[in-house]
Amino acid sequence: MPLDYRTAFDLAPMGLVLSAKRLIQDCNQQLLAMFQARREDLVGQSLEILYPSVVEFERTGERIIASLDAQGCYADDRLMRRLGNGQLFWCHVSGRALKPSDPHAEGIWSFVDLSPHRRLKAELTPREREIAALLIEGLTSKLIGRRLAISPRTVDVYRARLMKKYGAASTPDLIHKLLVV
Hints:
Helix content is 41%, strand content 21%. By secondary structure, it is an alpha+beta fold. The radius of gyration is 17 Å and the shape is globular. It starts with a helix and ends with a helix.
C-alpha cells in the first residue's frame, strides 16, 4: 500500500473528522470504531449525533466560537456518545477552524477516546458534564461561569451536586474521582 495523505488520514491513531458548517464531510477508520458507526451513518450528518444531547452540541459550538485562539485552534475534554450502544464516554477533542473569522465554516477535528483512563461513574446532567470537564481543566468557578455565561454561584451549586454524586469531600478529591478509572 503506497503511503499517501489518504492512507495517513484513514490509518491515523486517533479519530479524524473534516467538517463544514458542522456537518461531517469525511472521517477515518479510527473515528468509526470509536463511535461504533459505519461511514454511511456519519458522512453528511451533523456532528450533533456524536453528542449526548442537542443542548451540549449547541453549547459546545458557542464555546468553540468564544474560545478559538488566533490560529483558529480549540481543544477540550468532553463527553461524547457512541452510536452503536448510546454509551457516553470521555473524549479529548482538538481541532482547527480553517477560517477563524467563521469558525464553523470548515474544520479539521481529532478525537481521542479517554475511556480506558477515565470512566463515567455517575449519571450526570448536560450542565454537570460541562462543569466536570471544565473543573478537570483546572478552571475556577469564576472562569467556568464566564465560559458558560452563568454565575459563579451557579457553578458552585453544580460543583456541590457533583461532589455529592461522587462522594467527594473537596474539589481536588472530586477532580481525582473524575479522572481515576
